[in-house]
Design a protein that fits this description.
By secondary structure, the protein is of the alpha/beta class. It contains 7 helices and 4 strands.
């Protein structure tokens, strides 16, 4: 299967924790272990996960719509989006054009109700981490 890999960091702190080189390396290893062919690596540096208007994300979505690949792999859901509604809408958009979505570190299968619940839950946690309340607790 031909897949796209997507990586993102938004701040210096995240760059240290979820470095741009480390994310694609993990995603490449995952693709190789599953016999996936990587169509392209889409990497947004310095972009917030709360917005959809990221250059590489937009290119990924355009290529998905043109049928260039059949799957998208990310390190974690929060590397794709930190906004639950945008996450679910984008995954739905990918599904409508025949593209699957996979987080390589979080187990879920969006082809069933439990998987849909899991992606909603994980997306909500990623969204919550962006709130002032979470920052105050950390």
């Amino acid at each position: 299967m031909k897949v796209a890999i997507y990586a993102r960091v938004s701040t210096d702190e995240q760059a240290k924790k979820y470095s741009i080189p480390a994310q694609p390396d993990l995603l490449r290893n995952f693709a190789q272990a599953n016999n996936y062919e990587i169509f392209k690596e889409y990497i947004d540096k310095g972009e917030s996960g709360t917005i959809s208007e990221r250059p590489e994300l937009q290119e990924l979505l355009n290529d998905a719509g043109r049928g260039m690949f059949k799957g998208v792999s990310v390190y974690r859901i929060d590397r794709f989006f930190r906004n639950t509604r945008k996450l679910l809408n984008t995954v739905d958009e990918l599904t409508r054009v025949g593209v699957s979505f996979k987080s390589v570190t979080e187990p879920f299968d969006t082809s069933n109700p439990i998987g849909n619940f899991m992606i909603s839950l994980l997306g909500s946690v990623a969204n919550w981490k962006e709130t002032p309340l979470f920052s105050a607790l950390g």
